[in-house]
TrEMBL record, chains A, B:
Gene: menD
Known function: Catalyzes the thiamine diphosphate-dependent decarboxylation of 2-oxoglutarate and the subsequent addition of the resulting succinic semialdehyde-thiamine pyrophosphate anion to isochorismate to yield 2-succinyl-5-enolpyruvyl-6-hydroxy-3-cyclohexene-1-carboxylate (SEPHCHC).
Biological-process GO terms, alphabetical: menaquinone biosynthetic process
Binding note for cofactor: Binds 1 thiamine pyrophosphate per subunit.
UniProt key word Metal-binding: yes
Protein name: 2-succinyl-5-enolpyruvyl-6-hydroxy-3-cyclohexene-1-carboxylate synthase
Database matches in NCBIfam families: menD
Domain named Menaquinone biosynthesis protein MenD middle: residues: 232-390
Region forming the signal peptide: none
Cofactor: Mg(2+); Mn(2+); thiamine diphosphate
UniProt cross-references to Gene3D superfamilies, sorted A to Z: 3.40.50.970, TPP-binding domain
SUPFAM superfamilies per UniProt: DHS-like NAD/FAD-binding domain, Thiamin diphosphate-binding fold (THDP-binding)
Keyword Cell membrane: no
Occurrences of domain Thiamine pyrophosphate enzyme N-terminal TPP-binding (ranges): 12-125
Length: 559, 559
């Protein structure tokens, strides 16, 4: 008969897989020994399990986040005891807000070594506080027969909890006592899968009729924020067609391109070109917080009634303005709305389509000059099925305003807490989908997670990184502190003496420095075969001027 | 009259300085704007304030830890809202256990933006949980006159709390509302300094007499663990002389070299060469958990009575064996013990001195062959006043066994939680002392905190890094999992395809590859003038064999 350590860990790992875990991200350490070795063995005996090793736990957690948000699956992390586990906190903060089901297995020292000065021993209980949806500790070396049954039930139920709307990350702490070597090469147990059904609150019949009546008003429109649940864009397009709705489509809505999509709302508001005839009577809102800060303020200032639908984000409106909140599954609500009578009149839709077309033509005439507008143009060449990860700060804002892909792509960013940390690793997580993946980032964000580049070796996936190198933090030049001239560069601009080509050399990456749109577009059309870093140099001050000039140009052309 | 934001932040910063803060480590971000700008201004108007910018918050926190543990002063961190603040957790875990007074100023979004989907807004309250000694949130934009007085009192009192034994890190959360621009160029306020006296529990008179009587036994000895309070080594040497005590001096005790110091206790126990005549009747123990794991087990197995003295570490004995715990200030206890009658008989001391001498001569004959013994020999050449930071895993263990500097150095490591994260940054923190500083590390630990290398630019301090490159995690080869051959390399060895010379090039460092003791010693004698990376290549398997051969050689020579 096998020992309790080996048996219980096999039940733990099998239970995780039964509830839909396929990816495990491991950061090595002594205390992880039995879990890591049995995981390696499980990978040999099951073909639905994939293990990636990442030495830097902060990077590992953001990598897992990228896998989970791309595949819409739970992903497991494994860390050794001590400060290693603390490195997961930034990604847990992001996962908690953007509802990503990460599962951290934090190995720990046993009870008898706690708080008496044993090495590598820290308080790991409830380590992520409010940033984890659930916490449990499980003894893996307890011989009692009930413990194994408890693991089968409890671990599966915990994964179910992580996957219940609103989804979120959980921590499973595993105190482990020496000896830590499991028995290898023995048979794996059969574990009974639990059927976990996620209940859904639906909008009632009267609600749907009332919403449909509002959508039939002459000037109804939709606001699609970031998609975090993998919604059906085809059905959203059917809904837009059914009620002739223009759709304010966030860059992360995955709704572009579409004849119903309006992009650049932030620019349009900034340029003050939205006249009263374009103000909607009602807005139907789905998804997370939009990238555009101005759209939220605009909705409130124009006193536009907003109906917000969703399980995760319902009630989350930092404009503090939402008129009606519908806590329900968006796909169900859309089906119900499609069953109600629609409208034929496309006047309002047409007006917004015209405005978008004019905006893009003004932007296009500006493109020749400025890197920040050339990049979205070139990225539009991304081939079908390509995936795109966008860094926070300036890249996500520019892309939200000006990016229209030629075909629908899966696009992601870490927009829960909007950190610049872990971006490279999250993009590698996206690349684990096996589809060609591109990361668009600035130089500071690339630097912050440079260790993530090691994943090109550890995860064996190719990726293209487009770095807009403006030698520091570009976004601060748009903020009031740029006027505090004496202190601005050292405290905010923070230029770093990093040479991108040397980073590429360090990680054996293909490197290209490009300075024109044609060269960039050519590269973008060809997927990378290994790690490829494309650098485009920019200038923070010129960028500010270009953005301001563009706003003036839009105002003049569209007023 | 100045606005409340500017006034209150000036009072906050001045209160921190009044209680002994001189170093501020800033990671840029929008929400930090008023604090960062006023800090930059304060640096202009006061010459006792130093500000360093570090883009990576994880690195910043470990850097602050290094400064604090070297200077024995509180150090302030400043981060923007969101995941940035989460990056401090690993260093807070270490600071909490090793009693370092870090003060994190975490800027936050105001109440009206919490939990409703506002960007970059996370739960920052009590973010570090049990890993912070105190938490508070202070409104900086409240006009009420009492608020400014509250800041003067409360902030000074909080620093006092961080500095009270056992010392520890604290979090001050600062919700800030836009507009964030402070008024620059105005006069700074006078803040009344508070006098905060740290009470000390002392051992009573009977206790001291009883301990002194035990130390007069024929076979009494001392165990000095890591020094985290900056104790007076001269007084410890006087105590050893007074009672003729051999001192088991941990590498981090800062007690080597001394005629009373015994090093290599871990090797001596491993080689089974400590005969009964060397077993002490009693051990007087000061300081943190020793690097040697074996010495703790040995004390218990031999049933040696241990008297543990200290405020921070009293009661922390993971051998669960301490006989008497004295919760008192070590310096006071030593003074009292020096006032009691001592002993003249040095027989027991002489025996241990002989053993140490013999051990070192066996080690010396082995040195010619193996990198891991050559490195301590070369580092013994470090000049007076030099500082040395040692990475965890194998370097700290080898140094604990075989390192005897020619003069007393300040030596540090992160031995609270023993993480490999943040090591480069902590070493740069040590270098902020202005003394020549050397970091000894393996390649994995260097990689984990590669971003810390940016501090050579941001902090403008030189440092030497000696990298023993064994292409992966050397310590695992000593553990049982090394026998799981099929899974060992990918799960534990984790060789990374990193070329150290390319890291040096990326950070504009001087680079030397050395392969003999003489060349390494020559380099060690000359302090670095900028960042200097010295690589020595090693082999994990040969290292295991060499360690085992050495144990055999010690056993044969000393039995």
């Amino acid at each position: 008969m096998t020992d309790s350590l080996t048996r219980n860990i096999k039940h733990l790992l099998t239970s995780l897989v039964l509830q839909g875990v396929h990816d495990f991200v491991v950061s090595p350490g002594s205390r992880t020994t039995p879990v890591a070795l049995l995981l390696a063995e499980m990978q040999q005996v099951r073909d639905d399990v994939r293990v990636t090793v990442d030495v830097d736990e902060r990077s590992a957690a953001f990598f897992a986040l990228g896998i989970a948000k791309t595949a819409h699956q739970p992903v497991v992390l494994l860390a050794t005891s001590g400060t290693a586990t603390g490195n997961y906190l930034p990604a847990f903060m992001e996962a908690s807000i953007s509802h990503i089901p990460l599962i951290a297995l934090t190995t720990d020292r046993p009870t008898e070594l706690q708080q008496i000065g044993a090495p590598q021993t820290v308080h790991q209980e409830h380590l992520y506080g409010e940033h984890a949806k659930a916490y449990t500790a499980i003894e893996m070396q307890d011989d009692h027969a009930d413990v194994t049954a408890y693991i089968d039930y409890h671990v599966q139920e915990l994964v179910g909890r992580a996957l219940t709307q609103p989804m979120g990350p959980i921590q499973i702490n595993l105190p482990l006592r020496k000896p830590l070597m499991p028995k290898l090469g023995e048979a794996w147990p059969e574990v009974t899968p639990q059927r976990i059904l996620v209940g859904q609150r639906q909008a009632g019949w009267q609600d749907i009729q009332a919403i449909a009546a509002l959508l039939r008003k002459p000037k109804a429109m939709m606001l699609l924020g970031p998609d975090e649940i993998g919604w059906q864009t085809e059905k959203i397009e059917q809904l837009a067609a059914h009620y002739q709705l223009p759709v304010l489509a966030d860059i992360l809505s995955n709704f572009r391109p579409s004849q119903y999509a309006v992009n650049g709302i932030d620019s349009l508001i900034a340029a003050d070109v939205i006249d009263d005839s374009l103000i909607p009577d009602v807005v139907l809102r789905f998804g997370g917080t939009p990238v555009s800060a101005k759209v939220i303020t605009w909705l409130r200032e124009k006193e536009i009634p907003v109906i917000q639908v969703g399980q995760e984000h319902a009630g989350h409106d930092h404009g503090r303005h939402t008129h009606t909140t519908v806590v329900a599954d968006p796909d169900t609500v859309i089906s119900d709305l499609l069953a109600e009578p629609g409208v034929k009149n496309a006047t309002f839709l047409k007006k917004w389509q015209d405005l978008t077309d004019k905006l893009m033509s003004v932007v296009t005439t500006e493109v020749a000059n400025t890197v920040e507008y050339q990049v979205p143009t070139a990225l539009a060449e991304l081939p079908e099925n390509a995936k795109l990860f966008i860094a926070n700060s300036m890249p996500i804002r520019d892309m939200d305003n000006y990016f229209v892909p030629k075909q629908r792509l899966q696009i992601a960013a870490n927009r829960g807490a909007n950190g610049i940390d872990g971006t490279v690793s999250s993009a590698f997580g996206m690349a684990m989908s096996g589809q060609p993946t591109t990361l668009l980032t600035g130089d500071l964000t690339l630097f912050h997670d440079m260790n993530g580049l090691m994943l090109s070796h550890q995860a064996h996936v190719p990726m293209t990184i487009v770095v807009v190198n403006n030698q520091g933090g570009g976004i601060f030049s748009f903020l009031p502190q740029s006027e505090a001239a004496a202190y601005f560069e050292p405290m905010f601009g923070t230029p770093l003496p990093i040479v991108i080509e040397r980073i590429a050399r360090l990680y054996d990456a293909e490197y290209k420095l490009v300075d024109d749109l044609a060269a960039l577009s050519d590269l973008i059309r060809k997927p990378a075969t290994r790690l490829r870093i494309i650098e485009i140099q920019s200038n923070r001050q010129q960028n500010v001027t270009a953005h301001r000039d563009l706003t003036t140009a839009i105002n003049e052309a569209l007023s």
